[in-house]
């Protein structure tokens, strides 16, 4: 089943997450129509290879053309129209930058895998539960309800102001009419009656003025209370969800809803401001003793302006945190002289502001960091916000060509930095702009979450560990001295984040048994409830008896999965995180030939397999092969190794000992679809070897000695070179092979 077919079978809450990352940058119609073709291409490799990306973009347009021909024959007018529009959009947007669409499609496929992995996990972790509790959902609904009510109240007050204006015009007309009469006429009974009517009208005017000012005051108070409480909490919750999403957590939504609330409140405040201006206009035409307008209006206007300032300042947010397109799963880690992207949005979406707000990006502005290193931003660092680049029409700006460059520092300053210091330095990218609207001038500033600057890609794993620890441990957006004294983390939350690393990066998270093994490796304890883990234990101190840290070991496994065994991991056939002691407990009662796959605890980025066997006397024995690392897996796919693996027993008969994947899955049933080709025998020269050479196949081989009653260590099972064994088997007798081995 294709990945897209699996996505379509998800529950609605997961489908809503999928819907969030498909837009005009990569329309869902194309994803649906070209599902199998899209999944068969290597978009991740193309995202770093312009020539490959160019070819893939051309092939994508060809695929769209073929779909157009098909739907044209079916006379599907709507689909024809959409496909023509999409083709024009794709060609225009990516013709000059084909790697950009490769990055986008790669990200979409990765997010689909992460969501599929999340959907398969039976239990939510503590962090995810805290982000999706019912209290938050209820508050979101309350905010939207109150904003709507405020908007309606402001509109109703508009009608009251209009009625007041009409009443005052009538009063003004009647009053001027009397004033224009001759003095003798003013003494008539009819005029005296009219004067009494005017006095009553003036009393009504006074009452209506007070009533309008009171209603305006109530609207302002409601806005103030909403902004001070629920809306502020909503914005802080969104920022926290963004932090968690950046380190692999659930996709964060809700920004469009916040934009709607901010925009409606801004429109209401500007509407109230116009109402106050209208009252000032009415005041210039008519005032009297005890008039409430000159007393209350200045205070109300000052409060409205104050709320507008705060609303605009809070509405300027970093929609997408800084990220290098070459490492989309590692946001906030930036390499010097490598471009990164960052996107900002103004949550107050007013047409008058389109292309009127210019945003400037700087780094470490007015900030003292713990480092002597200083940086500047190269590239286009000033751009205008607009509503045309975003698919949803939001008022936003995306910087795509910024590069951090390290400034020369005083001699010797770098020499004092330890191996971890660079990756524990936090920096800040700031953005500033100015809004001029309806006589108001508002200066806006915001900053990204702290970023780590690296100068070499080898620093990326530890830099990413710093980003994980920071965003797990604090919701402070600008604590650049965090690593002067980093706090401990709750192990249960850290394990959840580690599972997210696997679900977001390699498409399948960790189950409770795998997480328990990691917890035991970190703490040395079987029970870890409420255990507090230090930063040093996670990333700086070597594991007992090893020359590497826990994080370096885990990162090497992630890299191994991503590059060499991804399909097997996604299928769930790699147990992976299981100790040697636990694997023997699992295998001891199983059928001989049952095996499991686990990651090496002693080698970085290694995977091995262990199988159970039975001796003639009935005793159970276990065999583990020397771990395969990325170097050896680059030469031979792991699934083919499992298929072709042979051992030479004492009787010199090579056989494959791997029969069943734990607990009892036939090996070929589990891995058959991942074999690169059908196993073949070594051919004779006459069978087609080119130029007289003997064709060869790679067969991993080990030798097991039966004269040892002790469990074999990995060193007992060092694989013979496949090519050597193939030639030996073709040309030498078993006795001679035994001597050579």
TrEMBL record:
Keyword Membrane: no
Protein keywords: Acetylation, Activator, ADP-ribosylation, Coiled coil, Cytoplasm, DNA-binding, Isopeptide bond, Methylation, Nucleus, Phosphoprotein, SH2 domain, Transcription, Transcription regulation, Ubl conjugation
Any one GO cellular component localisation term in the record: nucleoplasm
Cell compartments where the protein resides: Cytoplasm; Nucleus
Record-level GO BP terms: cell surface receptor signaling pathway via JAK-STAT; defense response to virus; negative regulation of developmental process; regulation of apoptotic process; type I interferon-mediated signaling pathway; type II interferon-mediated signaling pathway
Domain SH2, residue spans: 569-671
Domain of life, source organism: Eukaryota
GO molecular function terms noted in the UniProt entry: DNA binding; DNA-binding transcription factor activity, RNA polymerase II-specific
A Pfam family it matches: STAT_bind
Cited SMART domains: STAT_int
Keyword RNA-binding attributed: no
Primary residence: cytoplasm
PANTHER family: SIGNAL TRANSDUCER AND ACTIVATOR OF TRANSCRIPTION
Family designation: Belongs to the transcription factor STAT family.
Protein name: Signal transducer and activator of transcription
């Amino acid at each position: 089943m294709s990945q897209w077919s699996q996505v379509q079978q998800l529950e609605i809450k997961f489908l809503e997450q999928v819907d969030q990352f498909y837009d005009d940058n990569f329309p869902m119609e194309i994803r649906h129509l070209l599902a199998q073709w899209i999944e068969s291409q290597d978009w991740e490799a193309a995202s770093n290879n312009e020539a490959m990306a160019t070819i893939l973009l051309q092939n994508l347009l060809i695929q769209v053309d073929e779909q157009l021909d098909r739907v044209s024959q079916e006379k599907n007018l709507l689909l024809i129209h959409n496909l023509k529009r999409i083709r024009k959009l794709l060609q225009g947007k990516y013709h000059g930058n084909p790697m950009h669409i490769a990055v986008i499609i790669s990200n979409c496929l990765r997010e689909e895998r992460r969501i599929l992995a999340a959907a398969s996990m039976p239990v939510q972790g503590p962090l995810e539960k805290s982000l999706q509790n019912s209290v938050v959902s209820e508050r979101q609904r309350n905010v939207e309800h109150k904003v709507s009510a405020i908007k309606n109240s402001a509109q109703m007050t508009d009608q009251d102001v209009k009625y007041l204006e009409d009443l005052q015009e009538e009063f003004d007309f009647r009053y001027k009419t009397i004033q224009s009469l001759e003095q003798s006429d003013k003494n008539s009974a009819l005029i005296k009656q009219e004067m009494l009517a005017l006095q009553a009208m003036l009393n009504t005017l006074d009452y209506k003025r007070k009533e309008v000012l009171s209603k305006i005051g109530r609207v302002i108070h409601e806005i103030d209370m909403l902004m001070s409480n629920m809306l502020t909490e909503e914005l802080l919750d969104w920022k926290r969800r963004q932090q968690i999403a950046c380190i692999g957590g659930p996709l964060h939504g809700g920004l469009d809803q916040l934009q709607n609330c901010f925009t409606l409140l801004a429109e209401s405040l500007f509407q109230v401001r116009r109402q106050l201006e209208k009252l000032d206009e009415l005041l210039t035409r008519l005032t009297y003793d005890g008039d409430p307008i000159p007393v209350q209006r200045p205070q109300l206007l000052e409060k409205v302006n104050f709320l507008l300032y705060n609303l605009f300042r809070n509405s300027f947010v970093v929609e997408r945190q800084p990220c290098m397109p070459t490492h989309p799963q590692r946001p906030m880690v930036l390499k010097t002289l490598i471009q990164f992207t960052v996107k900002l949005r103004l949550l107050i979406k007013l047409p008058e502001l389109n292309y009127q707000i210019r945003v400037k990006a700087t780094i470490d502005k007015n900030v003292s960091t713990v480092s002597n290193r200083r940086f500047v931003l190269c590239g286009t660092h000033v751009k205008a916000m607009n509503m045309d680049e975003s698919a949803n029409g939001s008022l936003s700006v995306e910087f795509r060509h910024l590069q951090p460059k390290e400034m020369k520092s005083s001699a010797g300053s770098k020499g004092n930095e330890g191996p971890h210091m660079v990756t524990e330095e936090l920096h800040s990218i700031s953005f500033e702009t100015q809004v001029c609207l309806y006589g108001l001038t508002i200066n806006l500033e915001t900053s990204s979450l702290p970023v780590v600057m690296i100068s070499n890609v080898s620093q990326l794993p530890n830099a990413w560990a710093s980003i994980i620890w920071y965003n797990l441990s604090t919701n402070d957006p600008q604590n650049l001295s965090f690593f002067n004294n980093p706090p401990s983390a709750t192990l249960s939350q850290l394990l959840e984040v580690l599972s997210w690393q696997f679900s977001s990066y390699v498409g399948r998270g960790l189950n409770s048994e795998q997480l328990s093994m990691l917890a035991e490796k970190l703490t040395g304890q079987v029970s870890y409830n409420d255990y507090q883990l230090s930063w040093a234990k996670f990333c700086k101190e070597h594991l007992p008896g090893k020359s590497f840290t826990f994080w370096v070991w885990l990162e090497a496994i992630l890299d191994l999965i991503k590059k060499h065994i991804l399909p097997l991991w996604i299928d769930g056939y790699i147990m992976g995180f299981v100790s040697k002691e636990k694997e023997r407990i699992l295998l001891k009662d199983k059928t001989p030939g049952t095996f499991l796959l686990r990651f090496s605890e002693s080698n970085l980025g290694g995977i091995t397999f262990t199988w159970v066997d039975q001796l003639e006397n009935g005793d159970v024995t276990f065999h583990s092969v020397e771990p395969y690392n990325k170097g050896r897996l680059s030469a031979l796919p792991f699934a083919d190794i499992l298929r072709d693996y042979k051992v030479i027993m004492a009787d010199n008969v090579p056989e494959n000992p791997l029969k069943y994947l734990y607990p009892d899955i036939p090996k070929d049933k589990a891995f058959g679809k991942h074999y690169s080709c059908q196993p073949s025998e070594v051919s004779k020269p006459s069978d087609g070897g080119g130029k007289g050479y003997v064709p060869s196949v790679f067969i991993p081989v080990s030798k097991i000695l039966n004269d040892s009653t002790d469990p074999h260590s990995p060193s007992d099972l060092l694989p013979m070179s496949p090519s050597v064994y193939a030639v030996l088997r073709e040309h030498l007798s078993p006795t001679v092979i035994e001597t050579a081995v």
